[in-house]
Amino acid sequence: MIQALTRTITHELDHWYNSPNRKPLLLRGARQTGKTWIVNAFGASHFDHVARIDFMRDVDARALFDGNLTTDTLLRSIEIYTGVPVRAESTLIFLDEIQECPRAITALKYFCEDAPDYHVVATVSYMGISRHEDVSFPIGKVDMLTLHPLTFAEFLTNAG
After folding, report:
1. Cβ-proximal residues to 95 (8 Å cutoff; 6+ apart), any chain
2. How many angstroms separate the first and last alpha carbons of the chain?
3. What letter does residue 28 receive in the DSSP assignment?
4. Beta strands in the chain (DSSP E)
5. pLDDT band of 157, cuts 50, 70, 90
6. 1 inside domain
7. Which domain range does residue 134 map to?
8. What is d(CA 123, CA 68) in angstroms, rounded to the nearest whole number?
């Protein structure tokens, strides 16, 4: 298992983390490019806790977004569901494979508007997001980054 891998997107994640105008981050990319790995590594290096929900693996978690989308309700539900304390200053909320839960995509708008001090990152694959034509996408309410497959320069850096 790879313990440390240098990716150029790490600098962009740091910039997002330090931005005073930070919005929830949507990390896009093709399947198997390392989106989950990079967010887990980022979370481990910048936060005391990571409250991760994987909507692909845990279909029951989708029910957290079935009802009320107020951020107070969602933050409490995420904390109870994951068993991780959710605090603005020390917790990364990680919504993995968010394309599997269209209402969670919609909820990103409310995290932006009502809870901007929380750090929220969602990963999405290109194939998955296009399946949901009726999703209310939060235009202007999310920051977006794209993770591409490992570049040749990144390969050379990591190969030493």
Report:
1. 53, 55, 101, 104, 120, 121, 122, 123
2. 17
3. E
4. 25-29, 49-54, 91-96, 119-125, 143-146
5. confident
6. no
7. 21-159
8. 22
